[in-house]
Amino acid sequence: MINRRHIRVKVMQSVYAMLQSKNDVLDKEEKYLYNSIDKMFDLYVLILRLFVEVKNLEKNNMKISQKKFLATSEELNPKTKFINNAIFKLLEESVSLNNYLEDKKLNYWTLDTEYVNDIWKVTKESTIYKKYINSETTSFQEDKEFVAALFKEIIAPNEKLADYFEDKSIGWVDDIPFVNTWVLKTINQLKPNKPFLLGHLYKDDDDKKFVVELFRKVVLNHTEFEKEVQDKTPNWDADRIAEIDMILIKMAICEFLKFPSIPSRVTINEYIEISKDYSTNKSSYFINGVLDKILKDFTVTKRLNKIGRGLL
Fold first, then answer.
1. CB-based contacts of 188: which residues, under 8 Å, 6+ apart?
2. Which residues make Cβ contacts (< 8 Å) with residue 2, sequence separation at least 6?
3. What region, left, alpha or beta, does residue 196 occupy, with left being phi > 0 and alpha being psi -120 to 50 degrees?
C-alpha cells in the first residue's frame, strides 16, 4: 500500500504543477492527483503479472522444443522447476489480481511481448536461474528466494523495461523505486497454501482523505505560508529559494497548522527526506533550519494545536 511519504511526494508534484500553470481549477487537479496515485497501483500489478508472463513464455518454449523433429534428450525431458515455481503459481491463480488486470484492461504484456521476451532471455542466461534450476531441493522458501533474486537482479534494474514504463506513464519515473520496494515486500510476505490477495492502495480512508486535504490546504493557503517563510528568512529573497524547497516548506507549515494529529517532528523529518531525493544537495539543511525556526515560533506564540498522536 502507498505510504504517507509517497502521498506527500505526489501532492508536492501536483502543487508544483498547479502553481507553475497558474491554474485555479482545484477539482481538475485533484482528479489528476488521485489518478496519478491509482496509476502507481497499476504499475505494481503489472510487475506482479510480469512474473507470470515470463513463466508462461518458458512453458510455451518448452512445448515447442518438445515437438522438434530432432529434439534433444534435454528438450524432450526439460527441467520444470521454473514453471512449477510456487510463487508464480500463487500470482497466476490470484482471483483479485486477475480481476484487477481485466477491469483495468492492463493487457500491456500481451501487446508488448518483446519486453517479456527480453526478461525471459536474460533470466535464462543468468547465474541465479542456472543455480536454481539445477538445485535438487524443492521448497516454498527456495522458490520465494529465487523470485526475490530474479526481481532484484534482473527485472528491477532492467533499463529497457524502465524506459518502457516511462513511455507509458511519465509519473511512473518517480514511482518505480517505491513500487519496486512494494513488489519485493509482497514477494517476501507470501505464504504456502495461502492465496494471494491484492491489497488496498491506501492503508485506510484517513490516508485517502489526507491526499486531497493536504493538496487543497496547501494551495489555498500558499500565499500565507510564503509570508511565514519570508519572515523567518530575512536574508533570502523568495526568488533565491528553490521552488521545490519553498513548496516543501509550505507543505510542512500546512501540517504544523492544519493537521493536529501529525507530530511536528514527523513532519520535519518527512520533508527533509523528500528534499534529498527531489531538490538540491544543500536543501535538506536549509529546510531543516527554516522549519526548526518556524516550529519554535509557532510553539512560543501557541499557534500549534496538536492533539492525540500529534502531541508525540
1. 144, 148
2. 37, 40, 41, 178, 201, 202, 203, 207
3. beta
Q: What is the pLDDT of residues 55-98, one digit of tens each?
A: 999 999 988 877 777 767 776 677 899 999 999 999 999 999 99
Q: Do residues 163 and 202 lie in contact, with contact meaning Cβ atoms separated by under 8 Å?
A: no
Amino acid present at 255: E
Q: Residues 234-274: pLDDT tens digits? A: 776 666 678 999 999 999 999 999 999 999 999 999 999 99
| 256 within 8 A of 298, measured Cβ to Cβ | yes
Q: What is the pTM of this model?
A: 0.89
Quick check: 100 and 48 in contact, CB under 8 A? no
